[in-house]
Design brief:
heterodimer; A: 248 residues; mainly alpha; 10 helices; 76% helix; 0% strand; B: 303 residues; alpha/beta; Rossmann fold; 2 domains; six-stranded mixed β-sheet; 13 strands
């Protein structure tokens, strides 16, 4: 009688498969690695951040790491999942021993694996070439916040991918990436927003992740408010995805 | 082995797509769900495969509820979806190896690929394959786990005659190995060639079921086979035939006679042609097909 491979093996295989799929896709690489690197260099060599700080790289690096999270979890997974849904891949794989839960766990592994690569590339570039000196006491909180941010944005990405057409997912997640990067509190603190809107800006998951990483890597502090905001987004988006995600 | 006791399902617009489908399939047999597009075949399969829960009725797959089943049940069942369900960027061999990794004792990927003629395009991204090539990869992906039950949704869609022969041979071989095979098709020729047992489905209901021989044979006391005779003659003529037979002019100039045709009846018909001084441009006679059965029951064409 035919038997499934061990659970751990199935999930690891799917994680590797999804990771390789993202790494082989040129557009995914552009948005996950190249654009964040350009942002990092741009923010360091231009005076864009000078209104907020006199240490550009200290403020640029955490913001770019937050942007990497949005690239991989929201835009990357959103688009990949949207098209897999269109082609019936989600249905097919959920009839194999992998199942629906294995499929989701594989995606989570892929997001985390890509983010490790992003941290190495972006963090490495900042450390080696741009004179970044992160607050060492903030490294662990920053790692935790990155994982939390990945959870929030992956849930959002899957929610979008599971409810609208893949072409719409492509447009929405790319547009969100641009909007959040430019004005969503990721690269730039929202202090520059008009006073009326600033409290609302802090409720955005993007602001929360940007603020949390800046608190950790500049001041070695654990930003509790931002963490709670991210947690709430994760819970709400996951529940919404479980409720409304359509597998076909 | 598998009992779909009257099953109902609603689609996501809450339209009742199947209602009271009742069917069963056995190991070592090919069971065909035959019906026109939109009859509810794919929805019935989705319930049987555990992809969606029925709104009513019960579904049992190898004795278990497929919707709540775990990996152990899924490893015994192979599924080929209508649209293939294949990722577009990956290459066929890599995909088959990936799927094989989900099982403890998969079939040999290379043997399967060779058997289905996949070797020739094993390293071409799936999005660049033809419909028939994709179909063969999807069949290999459904088989790689060495299943006991195989679901094939429209297996011959998009196949050229050569791949169709390869796929049909393989299906017959798998049946001989004892697999329970459930396939859907809207081609009566597929069902007639492959199926041991046919369920004809229309508008979400099982309208009739039986072996191909049972369905196409006479329904009354006699052992005679029902036949359908078609001939072309000038339009508007009346050919007098003994009850209960009639030459029905289905389209102008084309006449059909159906039922248990006897040599005596053919002699009467020939005499009528002589009386009208008509030599039919063409005459065709064949046993009643599943398509005729379907037409009789539903008043609709199968396609």
């Amino acid at each position: 009688m035919s038997a499934p491979a061990a659970l751990i093996r199935r999930i690891a295989l799917q994680g590797r498969y999804e990771t390789m799929g993202m790494l082989r896709n040129g557009e995914q690489l552009l948005i996950a690695i190249i654009l964040p690197l350009l942002a990092l260099i741009g923010l360091t060599v231009t005076p864009l951040l000078d209104t907020y700080t006199d240490d550009r790289i200290a403020m640029a690096a955490p913001g770019v790491l937050a942007l990497c999270t949005v690239s991989t979890a929201l835009t990357g997974q959103g688009i990949a999942t949207g098209f897999d849904r269109r082609y019936g891949v989600l249905r097919f794989l959920s009839t194999t021993p992998l199942g629906q839960s294995g499929l989701i766990l594989g995606k989570i592994i892929a997001v985390l694996a890509i983010m490790v690569i992003q941290v190495v590339v972006v963090g490495g570039t900042a450390l080696l070439f741009l004179g970044w000196q992160p607050a060492l006491g903030g490294l662990l909180p920053a790692a935790a916040q990155l994982v939390l941010g990945a959870a929030a944005f992956t849930s959002l990405g899957l929610l979008i991918a599971g409810t609208v057409r893949p072409e719409a997912t492509l447009a929405i997640t790319n547009l969100l990436w641009v909007l959040l990067a430019a004005a969503g509190g990721i690269l730039f603190p929202v202090a520059s927003w008009p006073d009326v809107f600033e409290p609302a800006a802090h409720l955005l998951p993007s602001t929360a992740l940007g603020d949390a990483l800046r608190s950790a890597l500049i001041d070695a502090q654990f930003n509790l408010t931002a963490s709670i905001v991210l947690l709430v987004w994760t819970v709400v988006a996951s529940l919404a995805a479980i409720r409304w995600f359509k597998w076909s | 082995m598998k009992d779909l006791g009257p099953v109902e399902a609603l689609d996501n617009k809450m339209v009742r797509v199947i209602d009271g489908v009742h069917l069963r399939a056995y190991p070592g047999q090919v069971t065909a769900l035959l019906g026109p597009n939109g009859a509810g075949k794919t929805t019935t399969l989705a319930c049987a495969q555990g992809l969606m829960p029925p709104n009513g009725g019960t579904v049992r797959l190898l004795g278990q509820n497929p919707y709540q089943a775990g990996a152990a049940l899924r490893s015994r069942v192979g599924v080929m979806l209508q649209e293939g369900g294949l990722p577009q960027a990956i290459r066929p061999l890599a995909l088959l190896q990936h799927v094989a990794g989900m099982y403890q004792n998969p079939r040999s990927v290379n043997e399967l690929a060779e058997r289905l003629g996949i070797q020739g395009f094993a390293n071409t991204p799936i999005r660049r394959l033809s419909g028939g090539e994709k179909q063969r990869v999807a069949l290999a992906a459904a088989l790689v786990g060495d299943p006991e039950v195989l679901f094939l949704d429209e297996p011959s869609a998009g196949l050229d005659p050569q791949s169709r022969a390869v796929v049909f041979d393989l299906i017959q071989e798998l049946r001989a190995e004892g697999l329970g095979i459930i396939l859907t098709t809207h081609l009566m020729d597929d069902a007639q060639r492959l199926a041991d047992y046919v369920f004809i489905i229309d508008a979400g209901r099982t309208v009739v079921h039986g072996t191909v021989a049972e369905l196409t044979a006479a329904t009354d006391e006699s052992t005679g086979v029902e036949r359908l005779l078609t001939f072309d003659a000038p339009p508007g003529l009346v050919f007098a035939l003994p009850e209960p037979f009639a030459a029905v002019e289905s389209v102008p100039g084309r006449y059909t006679v159906s039922g248990q045709l006897s040599p005596a009846l053919l002699a009467v018909l020939a005499a009528e042609w002589a009386a009208h001084n008509v030599m039919p441009a063409s005459i065709h006679m064949a046993p009643r097909s599943l398509e005729d059965v379907f037409l009789d029951i539903s008043g609709k064409d199968l396609r």
